[in-house]
Amino acid sequence: MPRFSDSSEAARFADVPIEVEIELDRRMMRLREILELTTGSVVAMSKTAGDYLDIIASGTRVGRGEVVVLEKTVGIRITGFESRT
Fold first, then answer.
1. Does residue 69 sit within a domain?
2. What is the pLDDT of residues 4-22, one digit of tens each?
3. CA distances from 70 to 20, 45, 75, 80 (A)
4. What pLDDT sits at residue 78?
5. pLDDT tens-digit profile of 28-83?
6. Phi/psi zone of residue 58: left (φ > 0), alpha (ψ -120 to 50 degrees), beta?
7. Rounded alpha-carbon distances, angstroms, from residue 47 to 17, 33, 51, 52, 63
8. Which domain holds residue 63?
9. 65 domain residue, yes or no
10. Residue 42 and residue 20: Cα distance in Å, rounded?
């Protein structure tokens, strides 16, 4: 992987779109449960505020974040990035 001597060199790539994924949780459901879902249905997850999640960019783990609740919204507070070697 190329290393950049400073952030100004990397700035040339600032507008390149990168897919970022933050997976809150996974859960197995029976087909019956999925078919019963309607608008407004709530699917309970095991993650809560304060739990840690991986931040994935283009299929590579680039950092970690903490689940936070902002009023009525769930968000991720970035707690660190992977070291670049």
1. yes
2. 555 677 788 889 898 988 8
3. 20, 17, 7, 20
4. 92
5. 999 999 999 999 998 888 888 899 999 998 888 999 999 998 888 888 999 998 87
6. left
7. 28, 20, 6, 8, 18
8. 16-81
9. yes
10. 24
**What Å distances lie between residue 21 and 9, 24, 29, CA to CA?**
26, 10, 22
Name all contacts of 3-7 with Cβ < 8 Å and 24+ positions apart.
Answer: 3/84
Query: What distance in Å separates the CA atoms of residue 35 and residue 20, rounded to the nearest whole number?
Result: 29
Residue at 55 is within a domain: yes
Burial class (CB in 10 A: 0-12, 13-18, 19+), 55: buried
* AA identity, residue 49: A
CA distance 35 to 30: 9
How many structural domains comprise the chain?
A: 1
Question: Residues 37, 43, 44, CA angle at the centre, nearest 5°?
Answer: 160
